[in-house]
Amino acid sequence: MVRALTIFGVVAALTAAASAQPAVNGGTHELQANTAGQQISLEVTGGQAVQGVEFYAQLPAGDGPCFLAGDLLTGTIFEVNHDQDPNAWGSYVHAHDLYLGVATNSGTVSAAGKLVTLTLDTTGLWSGTYALQLRNDVEAAQTNFCGVDATLTDGTLTVVPEPGTLLLLAGGAAGLLRRRRR
To answer: Domains plus CATH for the chain?
Structure first.
């Protein structure tokens, strides 16, 4: 009886592990104000065997950070095992939405580690908090691992003023207070 329960427990654990989905968390990222070329990385967890990814991301339209580029290869889970031309997937980068796709040359890779590096621009922005969605509402598509759904958690981008700007503002406020007291 104990042996049957042990075998049942092992089978149940293996079945649960096999049915789990890769997970991508957009995270919380701080960006410097008024600066182009800032990079953030997103990770995938779960360790499932995957053959590729269709990565979608979207930022709020209008005033806010903009995408400049995305990289699914450099230092990622696909760096060593990928098709030679990820642009053949029809990848695009627009100011507020982006799509990147890549597949393995052969076999699979483990969905555990760095998934993508996004390059962003905050030129003209001094502060604010913005949503980073792991989907594209216009195309009604979301990040997936070539037919394997993923658990997605959207992220947050916070634009913070440079320390020098904060010191300048604090100095100005102190000067106004001193002048007012006179």
So the answer is: 22-181 (2.60.40.680)
- pLDDT per position as a tens digit, 52-70: 999 999 999 988 999 999 9
C-alpha span between 100 and 69 (Å, rounded): 10
What per-residue confidence (pLDDT) applies to 8? 42
pLDDT of residue 163: 74
pTM: 0.81
Residues 6+ apart with CB under 8 A from 170: none
Neighbouring CB atoms inside 10 A of 158's CB total: 13
Strand-pair partners of 119: 39, 69
Which regions of 46-154 does DSSP assign to beta strands (E)?
49-50, 52-58, 66-71, 92-93, 97-103, 109-110, 113-121, 128-132, 135-136, 141-142, 144-145, 148-149, 151-153
Cα-to-chain-centroid distance, residue 3: 45
Written as one string, the DSSP assignment of 116-134 is EEEEEE-TT--SEEEEEBS
Contact between 76 and 113 (Cβ < 8 Å): yes
Q: Is the pLDDT of residue 28 over 50?
A: yes
The CA–CA distances, whole Å, from 6 to 1, 2, 11, 13 equal 9, 6, 9, 11
